[in-house]
Amino acid sequence: MSGEILAIWAHPHLPLLLVAGVAIFAGTFGAGIFQRLRIPHVVAYIAIGLLVGRSGLGVVDGAALNKLLPFNAFALGVIGFMIGGELRREVFKKYGRQFIKILLAEGLGAFVMVGLLVGAMAMVVTGRPVTSVALGLLFGALASATAPAATVSVLWEYKARGVLTTMTYAIVALDDALAVILFSVCASLVAKLMGQGGVGLLRPLGQAAYELVGGAGLGAAAGAGLNFLLRRTRDYNKAFPFILSALLLLIGVGTALKVDTILAAMALGATLVNLAPRRSGGAFEIVERFAPPVYVLFFVMVGASLDIRGMPAWMWGLALPYVIGRTAGKMLGANFGARLAKAAPAVRKYLGLCLFSQGGVAVGLSIVASQRFAGPNGAAIITIIAVTTFIVEILGPPFVKLAIQRAGEAGLNVTEEDLMGSYRVGDMVDRESPAFAENTTVASMLRTIAGTDATCYPVTNADKKLAGVIRLQELKESFGGEGLADWLVALDVMQPVPDTITEDAPLAEAVARMREQQLDYLPVVKTDDNSILVGMLELRAVNRALTQEVLRRQRLADGEAT
Fold it and tell me: Which of 157-166, 283-292, 446-455 has the highest mean pLDDT?
């Protein structure tokens, strides 16, 4: 058996399922290590991909990557769908003009900066004006694209919410459309410059319009159909196949029709969230639950596909000004556009930091350019974009994290379950809850609890250790006879302690135990091996505190957005 296993690993083409399993396991394991270093998960996924891929051990080779291309399209569709869920009608109504001004400023800013720097460096390297202008135009157009996947992954990982987050979602969603239009225009101009005849501007612009409008229309139609199906089912087991099949069908049909499938998936999510703002929440929760392994495999494959070995020095000479120009163009353009649009201070200061990543669209357009302009120039375009994609995909996520943390938006888009995982029992225990001695009369207890809102009270013995618990229900039952409250004592009406928990235990564990045992409370003690009382933990109070904290964070985020 061991020989067979070694033979599998030695085989040049690993089985596809084995590749997927290795990628997901290694990516998840690596993310845990990177998390301790406070580095976003997506960086770990890409780094693991580099290790096992073309630039590293070569465990994942070109054959496996080609087989996984349909999966990559699906992963981008999932990401696009989730981005679309953030594009609500009221957001565009409020920020629509800001979106357009900032989009044009940061996209054209990157186009101009990269075009000038790459064109100047190409002139130094080649000495040919026409070639230099052509490379400047093509690289400038490619620089305007921003990869939504890595950026959005960080926003989800750190539960970001607020005006900066809202603006980032919108810009990365619209950036690719601007890049496709710019590339179509520039590719036509370059064809004329290089004497390839060309077909004028109308045809490439028409093709770009078809891809974008066709993708948006297809996604909107799919969103309307999915909404129709979800209106007629409340069952998770039925809703999940409907959503998954809608995404797969949309991507498959979009690929066959050669429209922009990422934009189509965004339109699907945007249509669904705007047709059914409340009901669609369940659909996005379903996708969010099965998405994590999809993201892991996708980003590991992104890293594995990058091959940065053997790149000539002159290509590095063009890659450096490309990265510098794109970074400066995005940051300065975003700042200028935000000031022009009178956007919030957080957007002016930090939006540029969220726009470094590039990926699918830039790589795809570079492949088109390499095919259309065959020869050294075409090879340079695809190689340089591949290398710079690696650089900015590694650098981009930490800057997104920095931006949302500086803007104070990290951790504002949390659920009660998310919060529960960040607390311990000691954070929620009621240390002021009245505790009664065993000989305290019911009448005395009633006078004490009149000013409290608790529903259960601990009883302690002479050693101050927990002896039992009294609930309001037991106190009510003790009112049966006149005058009983004056001579019944706590020892007579208390119930045995069903369970206890220590104050350093995770709050999630305490809530799970209360729910499993159908308890409304848990007495909190100092350690497991003694019964020294610390206080009481009530499920009702915990739920109320978590709900209030979620609402407080949402109000804080929405308040920043006003």
Answer: 157-166
